[in-house]
DNA sequence: TACTTCGCTGCAAAGGTTTGCAGAGAGATC
DNA sequence: GATCTCTCTGCAAACCTTTGCAGCGAAGTA
């Protein structure tokens, strides 16, 4: 039933190799022959079998995209950007969801390994050593995790968290809670580290609550704790948790931002739709998706090939592109943050508005600066 | 570099066919030999090349999932359910996003065709005839579209729309607007048809606005039109549009539900987080994902194989599983609907509460009934 | 002992494609 | 007219598996 290269060859009276070349190296075949072959192929509805092609070329023209949780609105912009970027380079993207499960991640990398030319690992939950081990099986680009010796795309959430804490301190908050993210998250550690340092500098006290699942429910479940902690401001690991917290506080009758200020991270589109609108640290997710694809495909020719073209012993040293890209974040101030109990009074250290890239939100949504290679 | 079956054979001193059988038919090989081979394979880090296997067996153990828009929160539950169901049957799911673009859909089906055993086509935007044509290339299950002769998973949005209109009419609304969905959407047509009929029965007038992009912005952009239309209630194609409309009305100073009632469709998790909370028609998305996978894999053995095992001429008649499943929907009443201008006055036809499956929302979220094969 | 049965293993073809190499013509150059 | 160059095409091996068939030795049966 499925029409193969052989059928086309028979129909157009040429050898299969000529048909093959008609598609993969058209300049090598006589224009007349070419049109004839193409006509026959069209007629018969022939489509090259990419799997068979991959078997010999070692190139599938697919890339895998492993995502911690598709339901998290943080990811779709990244996915779409990656897909669009890949499409331009004639690659297809296969997305897979791991449900925040480290074991599922490993399993998926293995399953994808032979079917794609490389894998984008987004917000991985597994251990560094496992990632390194897997990177020997298939080219990997890691997003939202820093690993020496592996290409990484990072977002400067440290700077973002710092800006957020400075913003809160500037508003007169001295007791601040941090809603931590999931275990195994590099971003969560980064935020915690930077927020802790910024709080110390600003003379504020930071209470860490967590780890928590990075979902609305994770935030909602901590509302009671937040109230009990007696803080006047909260920085959440991500917008989803911040939104859940908004809900939870509302249910407890706690007014935001009058009684408690809330800051999220990510600037998902939803954060403009809550009441109050969420103050948040915008992360350049689309840029991250594009960049990750670029880094993976950067050296098309460097990608390992199983086919005989890349002769054994030619390049024994495995590809080790260690470029790491850090993308900038930006604090977007909306309505969920307001004056704290110490507003107006003098505070130890720090000015009212820190040096971070703050911005009062404009209606059109944030324009996020991106770029900045920090190492390579 | 990549270790093949041959390396394992060499290392364990057996023929490659024995190694192959160790993995794909363990009962055929001597236990002693088996452990030796497995040990060598483990040692060398051997992983069967699924692509090569697929070349001969005709089975990739992958299924493709084509989605109109990953950013639409309607889809993630469906994706996750499909993935989980597939995993249980030792299948992997490759998700791809089409950006609501019919051309991208076709392109993706072609790209996936030879790399998966079947494709789930969710909310397709392309024409029926094209879908039928593509279904000859690869087994297809269609979600959210009815096509004779193809397996379909449908949600009874007609019933949902009817319930919504009856609910609104029961509250005393007689001028109702319908925010249509995207062109090419079966669901949109279905809603429009059923809502029109229900409005006629209830003695209400239905104004159709659209088609619109099925996004927040699509709803937001229609806020002005809604106000100008002078209606007291709106049924939107989906929750995202309803939420956008909520925003738009808020910006125009129109109070919901005091001045205008709003009903959405889908019951995405977000609809519980808006202010006011959204009244909506819950659709069984997870059930749809599970069902679609089941239908595709139902007859593992029926799937066409390119390998020689399925000899030519044995089953010439292509598989034509025409089972169609209709899943039930349910109206979930929250806070975005309230009494209309004719509340309390007598209305032509219909009782205050129609016969549809209405339910006052409970905090735990909806339990949706599913099932009901309507044809096969 | 001769024969069958059974469990295990090896052989080789097949699946659809790519690609290095060689060969066949045609045209150009001297 | 001989030689060279160049363009195009065919040949066949290779990629990594699976699987029908056949063979081999051991155990069981008569």
UniProtKB/TrEMBL annotation, chains A, B:
<keyword id="KW-0804">Transcription</keyword>
<dbReference type="InterPro" id="IPR010982">
    <property type="entry name" value="Lambda_DNA-bd_dom_sf"/>
</dbReference>
<feature type="region of interest" description="Disordered">
    <location>
        <begin position="333"/>
        <end position="376"/>
    </location>
</feature>
<keyword id="KW-0238">DNA-binding</keyword>
<feature type="domain" description="HTH lacI-type">
    <location>
        <begin position="3"/>
        <end position="57"/>
    </location>
</feature>
<dbReference type="InterPro" id="IPR000843">
    <property type="entry name" value="HTH_LacI"/>
</dbReference>
<dbReference type="InterPro" id="IPR028082">
    <property type="entry name" value="Peripla_BP_I"/>
</dbReference>
<dbReference type="Pfam" id="PF00356">
    <property type="entry name" value="LacI"/>
</dbReference>
<dbReference type="InterPro" id="IPR046335">
    <property type="entry name" value="LacI/GalR-like_sensor"/>
</dbReference>
<keyword id="KW-0805">Transcription regulation</keyword>
<protein>
    <submittedName>
        <fullName>LacI family transcriptional regulator</fullName>
    </submittedName>
</protein>
<dbReference type="Pfam" id="PF13377">
    <property type="entry name" value="Peripla_BP_3"/>
</dbReference>
């Amino acid at each position: 039933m499925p029409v193969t290269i052989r059928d086309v060859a028979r129909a157009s009276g040429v050898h299969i190799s000529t048909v093959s070349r008609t598609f993969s190296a058209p300049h090598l075949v006589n224009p007349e022959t070419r049109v004839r072959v193409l006509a026959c192929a069209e007629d018969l509805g022939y489509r090259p079998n990419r799997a068979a092609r991959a078997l010999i070329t070692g190139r599938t023209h697919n890339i895998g995209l492993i995502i911690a949780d598709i339901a998290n609105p943080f990811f779709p912009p990244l996915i779409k950007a990656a897909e669009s970027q890949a499409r331009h380079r004639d690659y297809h993207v296969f997305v897979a969801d791991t449900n925040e499960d480290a074991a599922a991640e490993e399993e998926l990398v293995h399953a994808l390994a032979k079917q794609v030319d490389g894998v984008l690992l987004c917000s991985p939950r597994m251990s560094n050593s496992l990632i390194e081990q897997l990177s020997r099986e298939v080219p990997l680009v890691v997003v939202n995790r820093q690993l020496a010796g592996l290409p990484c795309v990072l977002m400067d959430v440290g700077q973002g968290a710092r800006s957020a804490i400075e913003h809160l301190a500037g508003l007169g908050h001295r007791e601040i809670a941090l809603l931590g993210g999931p275990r195994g998250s590099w971003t969560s550690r980064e935020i915690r580290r930077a927020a802790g340092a910024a709080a110390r500098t600003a003379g504020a006290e930071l209470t860490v609550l967590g780890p928590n699942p990075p979902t609305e429910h994770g935030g909602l479940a901590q509302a009671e704790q937040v109230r009990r902690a007696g803080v006047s401001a909260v920085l959440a690991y991500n917008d989803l948790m911040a939104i859940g917290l908004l809900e939870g506080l509302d249910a407890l009758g706690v007014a935001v931002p009058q009684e408690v200020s809330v800051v999220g991270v990510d600037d998902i589109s939803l954060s403009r739709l809550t009441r109050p609108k969420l103050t948040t640290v915008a992360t350049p997710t689309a840029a991250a998706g594009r960049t990750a694809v670029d880094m993976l495909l950067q050296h098309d020719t460097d990608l390992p090939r199983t086919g005989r073209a890349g002769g054994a012993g030619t390049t024994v040293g495995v590809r080790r592109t260690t470029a790491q890209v850090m993308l900038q974040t930006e604090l977007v101030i909306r309505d969920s943050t307001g004056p704290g109990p110490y507003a107006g009074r003098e505070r130890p250290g720090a000015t009212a508005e820190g040096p971070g890239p703050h911005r009062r939100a404009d209606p059109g949504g944030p324009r996020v600066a991106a770029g900045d290679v920090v190492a390579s």
